[in-house]
Write a structure and sequence with these properties.
Largest sheet: 7 strands, mixed
Strand content: 15-25%
Strand order of the largest sheet: 15-14-11-10-9-8-17
Number of strands: 22
Number of domains: 2
Oligomer: single chain
CATH class of the largest domain: Alpha Beta
CATH architecture of the largest domain: 4-Layer Sandwich
Shape: elongated
Structural class: alpha/beta
Helix content: 40-55%
Number of helices: 22
Radius of gyration: 27 Å
């Protein structure tokens, strides 16, 4: 046996807070070593925070990171354990996203990322240069390039995030060069369904390369990106550690590195592939780490907890619905909480409650963010914190119903949130009169104007409250309505942070159904009694104005997600929704595409939004579409 205890560290770093981030690294490193770890893996860009975007153009920011890395090395010199730390490094005129090996007060090597993503929310190839096979250089007398580290317990390779997502990444090359333990430093954003994909992919890479793979991920939120943390240790295809997600800290496991060597000896295919690859591949450079790590003679063999190598563990499977809903709620709560904390601009959080589904869900998520932030406190103390930080406002007009007012009031009470009713009806009348004075002969105030004036008055009130109370004004529109412009510029598109802008309406309803099942809050039940309505006109219903939300969301997924033509969307919907006539479905498809294209100018003006999927409506980070365009092409030949 060759036993080693490895730890996976999740750190909630803030972009630019190099010193504070370094302090978190040192603290968690000490905790992990106290638990027996000889190797601690930290996330990608943990020192500078992620994403750094164009902040890397400031060389003082880059210098601060290397200075902090040197401090981390000095302050952990007494631990007798190796740390893998993510950092940005300058080399000549280029910048690199690197993993650094730190041990015994020294930086032993810097390994640059090779696969630089330039898709979806990622822009790394815009600012970083890539590493490549065989690269060898020195940066401030520290080895830099395509490296493996020969340590007293075995051979270690570092790589960064995207490198592991490609089967042709550097892992194969370095494992064929002798690396038996591969540490991947990641800042992988949360996306729905990504957990199973990550786990399967990491196990596959570990199996393909007959290696022990250690995967550490960033936790927390920066701007609109949410990182769920977690992490894995997978040995030769077998998952040995599945770390908890959505929390800062570490998890550790003891591994037997001899198992990898034994399987490499046994696997003739792996040996033949290694021999063929080694004969033609560039040289991977070995760094001899001559400082010893801590003694490992007290470690015990990692036997299964249930003491059987042949029987399965007890089934602890959680329902798919619970996993889905809890992941979304936790991710968005972290998004609100970290935005609130890290910007340093806010003291309170405000939600304009309409008595409808969207604003209710946003308030629930904001309340959840308080519970996560103050999880060490008891329930009563968390209630007190909620009352200190959160605010809910109901701003009715003559079109607001008693039912929605009651739903809003009860929901605020369920969530321990101070609630205020501030009518805008008088202001609405005055504004309509003022607008009438601006019109020329033959022009008149339209029904749409009367609706939009109400939304804009509410937004103005919320911004004024924000100025007065240092409040984080949360925007409450969902993705379905945003996609088709069912929102008012200067009205319900306003806010400092858009919480559910990337949640389709069907998902909003699903989450509220789940929350009603699990909490029995009366406010949710009252809200769900009434059909979804903006209540900006008499007898208004959202689905009557637009189309059934399941149809709208299907149109969005097929047209914006799958990039289908009008005819293809119609064909797909015809099989999905046989209860609707072909004429009706065709009309809805045409309406969706027309509204979607004409509404791009609206959603590019919306506030920063929290990302939870690969199909998001934010031009800067996701779906980059020209504002000025015609949908003529969508009709086909």
């Amino acid at each position: 046996m060759r036993l080693l205890r490895v730890a996976v560290a999740n750190v909630n770093s803030t972009v630019g807070a190099c010193r504070a981030n370094g302090d978190r690294v040192v603290k968690i490193a000490r905790e992990a070593v106290d638990d027996g770890a000889s190797l601690v893996a930290f996330p990608e860009q943990v020192i500078g925070g992620y994403p750094q975007e164009d902040l890397v153009q400031w060389r003082a920011f880059i210098s601060a990171q290397l200075t902090e890395l040197e401090r981390i090395a000095k302050e952990t010199a007494d631990l007798n354990a190796a740390l893998a730390v993510g950092v940005t490094v300058a080399r000549g005129s280029h910048l690199y996203n690197c993993g650094a090996l730190v041990h015994a007060g020294r930086i032993w090597g810097l390994v640059p990322k090779e696969k630089l993503p330039l898709y979806n929310v990622f822009y790394e190839a815009r600012t970083f240069a890539r590493g490549y096979a065989g690269l060898s250089d020195l940066v401030r007398n520290v080895p830099f390039g395509d490296l493996i580290f020969d340590m007293d317990f075995g051979k270690v390779a570092l790589e960064v995030c995207e490198d592991i997502w490609s089967p042709d990444g550097p892992m194969r090359r370095r494992c064929y060069a002798g690396a038996e333990l591969v540490v991947n430093l990641s800042a992988s954003p949360f996306r729905l369904g990504v957990t199973d994909t990550r786990r399967e992919m990491l196990a596959t890479r570990a199996g393909d390369n007959q290696a022990t793979v250690v995967y550490a991920n960033l936790v927390g939120a920066n701007d609109g990106l949410i990182f769920d943390g977690g992490g894995y240790v997978s040995q030769c295809g077998r998952v040995l550690l599945d770390a908890a997600r959505f929390r800062e800290g570490f998890a550790a496991v003891t591994v037997d590195l001899d198992r990898c060597m034994r399987l490499r000896h046994e696997n003739t295919t792996w040996r033949m592939d290694q021999e063929a690859f080694a004969a033609i591949s560039p040289q991977v450079h070995a760094v001899a780490v001559d400082a010893k790590t801590r003694a490992r003679d007290t470690l015990v063999y990692p036997a299964p907890q249930h003491r059987s190598f042949f029987l399965p563990m007890k089934d602890t499977t959680v329902s798919a619905k619970r996993n889905f809903c809890e992941d979304i709620l936790d991710a968005l709560a972290i998004g609100i909480g970290d935005y609130f904390e890290k910007t340093g601009a806010f003291k309170t959080i405000g939600v304009a409650l309409s008595g409808g589904r969207d604003s209710l869900l946003v308030l629930i998520i904001a309340r959840r963010s308080i519970d996560l932030r103050f999880s060490a406190l008891d329930a009563n103390a968390r209630k007190t914190k909620a009352a200190e930080v959160l605010r809910a406002f109901f701003m009715p007009t003559r079109y607001s119903s008693n039912e929605t007012r009651l739903a809003a009031e009860v929901a605020a009470r369920d969530l321990d949130v101070p609630f205020a009713v501030v009518s805008i009806d008088d202001a609405f009348e005055r504004e309509i009169a003022q607008i009438a004075g601006m019109l020329q002969p033959g022009e008149s105030i339209t029904p749409m104007t009367r609706q939009n004036v109400q939304a804009r008055l509410r937004a103005e009130r919320m911004w004024s409250w924000s100025n007065s109370a240092s409040g984080l004004f949360l925007q409450t529109s969902n993705m379905s309505e945003k996609a088709v412009g069912y929102a008012t510029i200067g009205g319900d598109t306003e806010g400092a942070l858009s919480v559910i802008a990337n949640l389709p309406k069907t998902v909003v309803n699903y989450l509220l159904d789940y929350l009603l099942e699990t909490t029995q809050w009366e406010g949710i039940a009252l809200t769900l009694k009434k059909p979804a309505s903006a209540e900006l006109a008499d007898d208004q219903e959202d689905e009557r104005d637009l189309m059934p939300f399941p149809v709208l969301d299907a149109c969005f997924a097929l047209f914006a997600g799958e990039k289908m033509s009008e005819a293809e969307v119609f064909a797909a919907l015809s099989s999905m929704f046989p209860d609707h006539t072909t004429e009706q479905l065709s009309a809805w498809v045409k309406k969706f595409i027309r509204l979607f294209v004409q509404s791009i100018y609206k959603w590019v003006q919306a506030p920063i939004s929290l990302h939870i999927g690969n199909l998001d409506l934010e031009r800067e980070r996701a779906l980059q579409l020209p504002v000025v365009q015609s949908a003529e092409w969508a009709k086909g030949p």
